[in-house]
Amino acid sequence: MDDLESIPPLPDPVLDRRPDAAVEAGFAVTPPRAGGSSWSLRALSGLEVGILGSAIMLLWVALGCWMQGQSFWTIPNLLAATFYGGRMLRPDFVWRTFAGLALHFSIGGLVGALYGVLRPSSWPVFTTSFMGILYGVVLYSLGTLWFWKRVNGMMAVYSTQTFVLIGYVLFGVALGLIPSRLRSLERHFLVH
Asked: For helices 74-84 and 39-67, what crossing angle results, to 10°?
C-alpha cells in the first residue's frame, strides 16, 4: 500500500489550462488544420444550431396554429401521424406527440449538421444567415412538394400555410449562429 501512495498523480490536461499540459500528460494534441475545422466539429455545430432552429421554428408554427384557433400541438401531432396514422389528428398533447417532436428535432438536427459541414468556413455570420434563409426556403419547397407528399400526406397539405414558410425562414436565420458555435467548440476541443 505504501508503494501506491508514493506514485505522484498525473497532471490533468482538462483542469490544467496551460497550452502544454496535455503534451506533458502524454496526450496527443490535435492542432487546428490550416483549411479550417474538422468536419466533425462543423457537423456538431450545425447539429446544435439545427436543434435550436427547430425549437424556434416549432414555437413559431405552434403560435401560428394557436392564433388561427387551432391547438398548440397541431404540428407535433401531424408529425406523429407519420408513425401512428390518422388517430393523431387530435388537438391535445398525448404520449405519441413525443414521436412528432422527436421527428421534428431529428430532421432539424440532421439538416443543420449537413449545412454545418457543407458551409464554407470563410463565410461570415451574415452570409451564413442569408444562405441559411435560402437553405430554409429550399427545405420548405422540397418538404412541401416532395418529401411530405410521400411520407405523410396530411403534413403536406398543412405545410402550405404561410406561417410554416416563415418558420423555415426563422430556422435559416438560426443557422447563422453556426460560426460562433463552431468557434466555441474549437476553443473547447482543440488545444492551440
From this structure: 110
